[in-house]
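Rotation project, supervised by the postdoc (A.L.). Task for the rotation student: set up a whole-complex structure prediction and record inputs and outputs verbatim in this book. Inputs entered:
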Amino acid sequence: MNGKRFLLWDLPTRLFHWLLVLAVIGAMVSGQLGGNLMVWHGRLGIFVVGLLAFRLVWGLVGSTYARFTQFFPLPARVGAYLRGEWRGEGHNPLGAFAVFAFFGLLTAQVASGLFSNDDIAFTGPLFSLVDKALSNRLTGLHHLLSNALIALVCLHVAAIVYYGRVKKQPLVKAMLTGWKDGASGESARGGGIVALVIALSVSFALAYGASGNWLPPPPAPPAASETPDW
Amino acid sequence: MKSKLLLALLTITLAGTAAAQLKPEDAIKFRQSGYSFMAWNMGRIKASVEGQFNKDEVIKSANAIQAIANSGMGALYPAGSDHGTGWEKTRVKPEFFTNKEGVAKVAMAFNKEANEMAKVAATGDAAAVKEQFGKLGASCKACHDDFKIKQ
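Outputs recorded:
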């Protein structure tokens, strides 16, 4: 410990990460238990849409290490990393694969969930936009992908344990505090208030789109006088 | 008199064989209709739970679900109905026909919750209806998880 440290993960990136952790755990538990928790499963799905949209924009306009161009797993970078010659900071080229895998998988997961149904009483917020057969297929995909997601989460956690125990890199600490010890890196720059407002705007817009609140409300139940006695 | 008796006997025999010889496609149609009708009624309870609570609607729907749950739908899974198409291709898993104990367990649990749903609906207690609606839905899910093919 030489006292030198630099800012690796800005606050929005860290908040995104931990909120996503909570939302995904909540969605997995509520989806497994079902019943009235399905209401929360749906809400969490919409929340994850917002989180993913935020991260997508933050990957373009956020601070240094949050940007996709900073860690995109180009073949040259991956090759260098595998030969032990990579000297960057932030997501290493292999970790970057995991980041994009999470991104793709979670996007497919929320997208399929929005149109899903459980043949009981739950329908995704955009269910009414597709026919039942397509909704059933998307529901099947949703179940299938949940297994892949669980596998990726396990791999992610195992990798963090490996880096902590074997390579002595406390990755969780940096994701919590934002700071990384060492003199080799420069503190993250960029991702100011304007970038934050843009990212949050896109995030809210997409979450609103996913919520289906813009859809015409279902027809009101017929008045008592219109309902036949039988 | 004798001929009337014979006719009655014949009718009973025919009816008996008809029930026993329910064609797999028909059995699949009947059971799909049952689940589909219950889904309509689940939706009506849900509308009451999430929006304006309507005691009459809830009672009607809960009673309908209870009636179907207690109608002996187990008879609609004759041998040979593990595959086939009713209104649509059946989504029952092969395990349904081999794991009789497992099926009985989830089916009985569903019946219990459906009976309870009707009981709670009669009280008109919105909070209790909501809670029981969740339990009923979870009992549907228990069977879907183990015995219904995910597409």
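Student's summary: The longest strand of chain A covers residues 5-7.
Supervisor addendum: The beta strands of chain A are 5-7, 179-181.
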